[in-house]
Amino acid sequence: MNIETVKDASGLKTKSGLGRVFKAAGYSFAGLAAAWRYEAAFRQLLCMACVLIPVAFFVTDSPVERALLILPVLVSLALELLNSAIEAVVDRISLDIHPLSKRAKDLGSAAQFLGLCSIVIIWLAVLI
Question: GO molecular function terms here (predicted)?
């Protein structure tokens, strides 16, 4: 079944067991590829993660501190994916300017801002 030709998604929900896991992994990789291709903010955060995650291994020997440094970076990437998903859905519904559309996009942006703040706060707390 080709997802490009399906008009009703109910046929995509029939998998169970290991087949479902493989399908879900495929959708996840497709989402990551779409984020890389279409979302500049995701690319920027991923580049930042490619710097910060290795740095976390050099600045501390403690596995717990490393995890504390890496986790907010990964959470911020996840938040950016969700923010981009919200924006895509809002834009899919309508490109008209509407207060609820603005609110949805602003809330997604605020979530990402808090994720970035958590990176700064946790890195400062661990390193100082």
Answer: ATP binding; ATP-dependent diacylglycerol kinase activity; metal ion binding
